[in-house]
């Protein structure tokens, strides 16, 4: 992290820690009786195991686990204060076992304690009882009362997940210098419903604890019994993430195969994809559209894998008219290849096919213009152009940010969507992304093997009519 990023993260940690401390003090004022060392230690142990051993890597930094089952169950049984203690102590032990640095450990412990205490407080403000009547042995329960309390449990879960995911997403956004919305969409949106559904296990764990405590006098046995189904739930979640990661890795493999033919542009598609996602986020597009545009940008040059393009990509001299016409077919060929994957038909395919269309209708392959060009294609065109201008060439160094912005403004309303150009010029996030150094992790080293005929995407490249 840069100095500024670390400072912002330090401030965030301090704010979350203070908020967690205040929430714990409020919860302590109305805490339920001490549950006993055996129950407390049993819940801490299981939550620590779930947090430490059964975690899944998130798409942008961080990790997730199903320790929330033990957190929510402990809160239902023992109240806000003891539930927050279980959450915080288990998180602390898991972080120490993983060797996570003290500052991040403080943040993780604080945010999970805050999430638990705030969720329990909201639950009780709305009329929820801790522990709920439906968990207790004996007594007469009304169907309406049980339905209301079960509904309030999902309110408890929702507050827990919202506070937890908001705090973590904010921290990840600060550390990675990404937009909060982008981090939330990638790390949270796809699994939030799953987490809410899986939280039902917390009710079952609490119910079984009460019953075994009543029958055997040792409710902590319930925790051991439920480890197996909890692990099964985590396994299903793990499979879901593995499928996502496998798909992403296959896409990256395809891109690497294409760039092997054109070594100078190594990393180009990844950079264009990253910039396209940022522009789509800044435009306020829906989450689904953002992911589709990101994928299309990653695959926009996939058609260059065809053998017929190999000699053109390595040709040292200027392309002939016939060779230029052949090279221009790569957009359609890319779209045809991408269309093989059923999931990509529609927005992704259209964005790939039309990423060389111009705002004035003089582009290719279809010669469409203005807003009839898919928004994804218009974004990729700008991103592709920016990457070309900010990449070192054998005959020139990458252009400055000011020079790049001047070129974009010069050709807006002819080549580029003026709204997108205005956004790029005015957005601090996009300007920072353009100007940041190309690190080895995000931007692989580029060998100087490309022909000198390559230029950036201006009207000189498309006289008649963009990773």
Task: Describe what you observe in this structure.
Helices cover 64% and strands 1% of the residues. It is elongated and about 85 Å long. The chain has 2 domains: 3-244, no CATH class; 260-435, Hypothetical protein af1432, CATH 1.10.3210. It has 20 helices and 2 strands. The chain has helices at residues 3-29, 37-52, 68-98, 102-125, 143-176, 180-189, 192-198, 200-216, 221-225, 227-259, 268-282, 287-298, 310-313, 321-327, 330-338, 347-353, 375-389, 401-410, 418-426, 428-435; strands spanning 55-57, 63-65. By secondary structure, it is mostly helical. Mean pLDDT is 79; it is low at 437-467. Strands 1-2 form a two-stranded antiparallel ribbon. Strand 1 and strand 2 (63-65) form a beta hairpin. The longest helix is centred in the middle third of the chain and has 34 residues, at 143-176.
Give me the number of helical elements: 20
Unreliable sequence segments: 437-467
Shape label? elongated
Neighbour order of strands in the largest sheet = 1-2
> How many strand segments?
2
Task: Please write the string of helix (H) and strand (E) elements.
Answer: HHEEHHHHHHHHHHHHHHHHHH
Roughly what is the average pLDDT, rounded to an integer? Answer: 79
Task: Please describe the biggest sheet, giving its number of strands, its sense, and whether it closes into a barrel.
Answer: 2 strands, antiparallel
Radius of gyration: 27 Å
Count of all domains: 2
Please estimate the helix content: 55-70%
Structural class: mainly alpha
Taken as a percent bin, the fraction of beta residues is: under 5%
């Amino acid at each position: 992290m840069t100095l500024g990023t670390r400072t912002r993260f330090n401030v965030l940690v301090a704010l979350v820690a203070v908020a967690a401390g205040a929430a714990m003090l409020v919860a302590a004022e109305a805490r339920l009786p001490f549950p006993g060392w055996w129950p407390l230690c049993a819940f801490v142990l299981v939550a620590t195991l779930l947090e430490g051993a059964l975690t899944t890597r998130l798409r942008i930094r961080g990790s997730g686990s199903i320790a929330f089952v033990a957190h929510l169950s402990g809160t239902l049984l023992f109240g806000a204060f003891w539930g927050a203690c279980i959450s915080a102590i288990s998180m602390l032990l898991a972080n120490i076992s993983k060797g996570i640095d003290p500052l991040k450990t403080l943040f993780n412990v604080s945010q999970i304690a805050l999430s638990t205490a705030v969720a329990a407080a909201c639950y009780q403000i709305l009329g929820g009882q801790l522990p709920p009547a439906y968990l207790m042995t004996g007594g007469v329960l009304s169907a309406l009362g049980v339905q209301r309390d079960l509904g309030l449990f999902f309110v408890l879960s929702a507050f827990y997940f919202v506070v937890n995911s908001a705090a973590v997403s904010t921290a990840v956004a600060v550390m990675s210098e990404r937009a909060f919305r982008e981090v939330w969409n990638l790390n949270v949106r796809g699994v939030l419903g799953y987490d809410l559904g899986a939280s039902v296990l917390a009710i079952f764990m609490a119910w079984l604890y009460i019953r075994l405590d009543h029958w055997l006098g040792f409710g902590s046995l319930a925790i051991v019994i439920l480890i197996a189904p909890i692990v099964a739930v985590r396994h299903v979640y793990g499979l879901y993430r593995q499928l996502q990661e496998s798909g992403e890795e296959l896409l990256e493999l395809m891109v690497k195969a294409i760039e092997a033919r054109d070594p100078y542009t190594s990393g180009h598609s990844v950079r264009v994809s990253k910039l396209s996602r940022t522009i789509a986020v800044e435009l306020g597009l829906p989450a689904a559209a953002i992911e589709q545009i990101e994928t299309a940008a990653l695959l926009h040059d996939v058609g260059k894998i065809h053998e017929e393009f190999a000699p053109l990509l390595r040709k040292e001299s200027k392309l002939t008219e016939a060779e230029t016409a052949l090279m221009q077919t790569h957009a359609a060929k890319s779209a045809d290849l991408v269309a093989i994957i059923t999931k990509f038909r529609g927005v992704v395919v259209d964005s790939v096919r039309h990423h060389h269309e111009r705002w004035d209708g003089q582009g290719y392959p279809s010669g469409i213009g203005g807003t009839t060009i898919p928004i994804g294609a218009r974004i990729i065109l700008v991103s592709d152009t920016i990457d070309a201008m900010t990449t070192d060439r054998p005959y020139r160094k990458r252009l400055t940010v000011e020079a790049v912005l001047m070129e974009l403004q010069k050709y807006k309303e002819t080549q580029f969507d003026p709204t997108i150009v205005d956004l790029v010029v005015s957005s601090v996030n996009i300007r920072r992304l353009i100007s940041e150094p190309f690190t080895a992790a995000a931007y692989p080293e580029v060998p100087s093997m490309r022909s000198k005929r390559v230029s950036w995407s201006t009207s000189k490249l498309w006289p008649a009519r963009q990773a």
